[in-house]
PiggyBac transposable element-derived protein 3
Amino acid sequence: MELTLEELQVFLGLWIFMGICTLPSYNDYWTEPTRVPFEAEAMPLSRFKFIRSRLHLIDNQTIPEDNRDPLIKVRPLINHIKQKCNSLPQNSTTFSIDESMSPYKGMKAGPLRQYIKGKPHKWGFKAFMLTSSSGIVFDFIVYSGSRTFEVENVVEREGLGAGGNVVFHLCKTIQRPRISSVCFDNYFSSIPLICQLKEDLGLVSIGTIRLNRTKECPLPSDKALIKQGRGTSVVQSTFNGQVAVVKWVDNRVVNLAGSWCGINPQEVARRWDKSSKSKVSVPCPNIVSLYNQNMGGVDVFDMLMHLYKLPSRAKRWTTPMISFMIDLSLVNAYLLFRSDSRSKEEEENDEFSSKNFRLQVVQALLSTKIKRRVGRPTLEESLNSSTEKVVHRARNMQQPPDATRLDGINHMIVFEKKKGRCFMCKAFGLDGYTFAKCSKCNVKLCVLQHRNCFHDFHTADV
């Protein structure tokens, strides 16, 4: 059966909603006791599975035999999203470049699947992103192995290395480089990169830097600086004063380089002191303050994307990649929507939350399909109530019967070697983890001086 535009809109709306109210299986949205009425009525389960398993962006038979693009199956969507990001108005003049990961643990993606040690999701698709300090994505490059520069038309410049060429290519998207600045971490930064950004684009930059990339800049050793105490900083300028290299002692020695500023004017940072068990004032160079203020754009994007990420577990690698592009579009749309809010008070209002924004998108996509029926709630009413009902049902699926939970017999506290999520904290949206559990109910529960979930679970209505 041919896929219509209306069906595709309904499918996307259901898929986005599944990222807001997560359940163990797709079947649970159509079957009792976790059935979601407006989803089940919008599209049959068999049709949803059929579309998801056969979703293609190009005809595989048209792929040339000498194809060199590993992302060719999703290239039309990537190029479309990238074009829209490039055309966004850049109201900000501070940008950051970093890596973003979309989780994927399958084995069928070849060089597309990457590993990054410090990320929440260590295995997945890697993308280099240019964002504003608020998290809006203006340009990105999806890593596709050794052919990344070839398929992305990146012109390699001598002496910059792979990371430096990525930064220089992304910075070409900045619309007003001579009044803008960019931050990046030590994976990308080098002295030649900072100089070429300044000379060729007129763009100032800051980045943490590895000592083996400082062109033998005469800086004192880490050991000598640590002896002088916390807050000590030294600066050396290179290339006729165009680039400043700074060493600063915090919990450890931090190395930065940049053409944006140096160590002055110094500010004061509040840090925890173990000996006095209180926060103390530590001198902080200006370059460190500006880096900390403007580097977190990609982290903001990652946080918003993973809050309500579309479920993307699949054998085919194209499905997680498509969900990655949809999430990117939704986060960008939400941040643009929030930036256009009339006042800060409205922005802080719950109506402007990422969840409610996605629910409005779902409502718009499904409005063409679901009509008001006699005796049934409207889509808006169903959306407002179903979120809490489905999550409540999902949380209570493994709860012991009330007769067992409240009988007051043989409920003993036992401690396990592995820490787990507290049942009560999870039910009420708290971030509680514990080693303790009830031996009879087999449920992990906090036993703390300020929060006794074990007692509340066995005495209160849950």
Observations:
- The CA atoms of residues 194 and 259 lie 7 Å apart.
